[in-house]
Amino acid sequence: MTAQTKNGGLIHKLSIGFFIIINFFWIGVPFLMALLWSLVDPKHPWSYPDMFPKVLSFGRWEQMWETSGLVEALTNSYTIAPLVALFTVILALPTAYAFGRIEFRGKKLAEVVVLLPLIMPGMIIGVFFSSMLISLELSEPFWGIVIGHTVLALPYAIRILSASFNSVPQDLIDASKDLGGSSFTTFRHVFMPMLKPGLLASLIFCLVISIEEFNIAFVLGSPDITTVPTILYSYLGYSFIRPNAAVISLILVIPNVILMLVIERLLKGNYLAESTGKA
After folding, report:
1. What is the pLDDT of residues 6-26, one digit of tens each?
2. Secondary structure of 98-111 in the HEC alphabet?
3. Contact at 8 Å (CB) between 195 and 164?
4. Rounded Cα distance, 167 and 75, in Å
5. What angle do CA 97, 98, 99 make, to 5 degrees?
6. Which of 32, 81, 95, 197 is deepest in the core (most CB within 10 A)?
7. What is the pLDDT of residues 207-226, one digit of tens each?
8. Dist CA 95 CA 100 (whole Å)
């Protein structure tokens, strides 16, 4: 074995070790601490100088489920998020097609302008939308949140879908037209198979953004509409209760992680099917 091969193996092991350590402290430790705090029994608080909780139970979970309005918040969050994902992807498609397939003057500037909502603080967007909706006499907070989240998620969907449109080989489009395929046939048999991963990725990103978004939901929805992040804020803000906040945090994070893993698996399966021609 040469010295170069040994060095390469050492660098590979160090990279993996560094990756594991960083992710353990960045993701693993906060998750484990949240899980531990969520299991602290309500009748036996965990405080200094105890190293660990005296009693662990699911009493805090039951208490939060029954008394915090969590059911209503979950219903709102998981009703708003699919609507936001659907509206966002539909609205993003024309712009994404233009960015991905058409060359026009000012395209680079337009791409930058589309990304502006990403650099604006969510609270400012929430205040702006609140003022705009009042001016339009649209007083329904549910649809106000849907519109606000859609605007917030739109840049992500446009970027992902424009990359998907751009990845469609022109040769396949020309071949479809040369064989007499109509615009609809070309879209169905050439564009759609290549766009599926981008569509799925856009949907999941918009779902996660809407479910985890706080500022717009708080400004436009409170006190009539509560979402999971607004309940979490109530336990992290003026009435700081760490175990309750830990329960809400896990309820907020775990479904999103599962959703991401499922979509990641679907995307890998779709990429594999596309690459092998077995879709």
Report:
1. 677 788 888 888 888 988 888
2. HHHHCCCCCHHHHH
3. yes
4. 37
5. 90
6. 81
7. 888 988 888 888 888 778 88
8. 8
